[in-house]
Amino acid sequence: MTAANSAQAISTNHSSTVPIYSRLLGNLWRSPGRFFRSASRWFSGAYEWESRAAYDLAQWFPPQDQAILSSICGTGHRTIDRMTAWLAAQAPPTGCLVDIGSQGTYSAAWMAMGAMRHPSPLTVVSIGEEIDRVWQVFARQAESAHLRSIVDQTFSDVYSPVVAPLSNSLSSPSPIPVSRILDRLRLQNIHPLAACSSFRDPISMLSIHSSRSSHELMTLLHKFVPHVAPSGWIAWTGIQGKRGLRRQAIIHQEMAAHKDCTHVITIRSLILYRRQAN
User: Fold this and answer.
1) 85 in Cβ contact with 60 (< 8 Å)
2) Entry pTM
3) Residue boundaries of the structural domains of the chain
4) 12 has pLDDT over 70
5) Is 66 helix (H, G, I), strand (E, B) or coil?
6) Among candidates 87, 98, 159, which has minimal Cα distance to 123?
7) Which sign does the torsion angle of CA 79, 104, 90, 185 carry?
8) How is residue 156 annotated by DSSP?
9) Model confidence over 23-50: pLDDT tens digits?
10) In terms of domain of life, where is this protein from (predicted)?
11) Which CATH superfamily is domain 45-275 in?
12) Sign of CA dihedral 147, 168, 105, 230
């Protein structure tokens, strides 16, 4: 080997080890923050809620099928998806489930999965501009999602009782009950601020994505929360990043005015309140 080749080999080995050291140092730098977040979630009870939701959901919606639904563009974090379905299943049967998501998200699909657990399945009201087009896209994606090999990340989630490396069903029909999900939906193809002025139905679960402006969030809160039934859920989703921290402070401040609503828990990007029973 010539001196030039030796130098090139040394340079190559050195450059290949630099990213490894960089990742190692980065992980060490982030370790205290990760430990603090894990500890806070443990003591807040978030782990217990996540574990309970994952276990119950796996009994009626297998983890490999959850992976297929979560693979559809527009669904959120798997833990929040599961919590949404689980909360919908636990909601009082006295009203409908209302989802005001960000454009192109399908959290209402998970609410519909929970709604079908009720003896008389609840209606899921999905509100947003061009919401009918959004759900047409969902139907096309859901019908073909099972035709792809989808890696199930369940193995990295300590709460799921089942490990399924691949959720691939090439020779079987879609495991996602697309028609049943769509049957549960009632679409309001208008801006949420326009919808809230005429909305009168009792609400068993209200889910609002925090991507909207502060003014919109507060208006939706004051218009929709009074319709939430006793023991009904109020879920604020998408609370993350620096903007999310500001949203979180605003939400807690405004919700404090509703004395009959209690903060239950905060899980990742979800803030959960519940209206007190009569």
Assistant:
1) no
2) 0.77
3) 1-35, 45-275
4) no
5) helix
6) 98
7) negative
8) G
9) 777 666 665 655 555 555 554 578 899 9
10) Bacteria
11) Vaccinia Virus protein VP39 (3.40.50.150)
12) positive
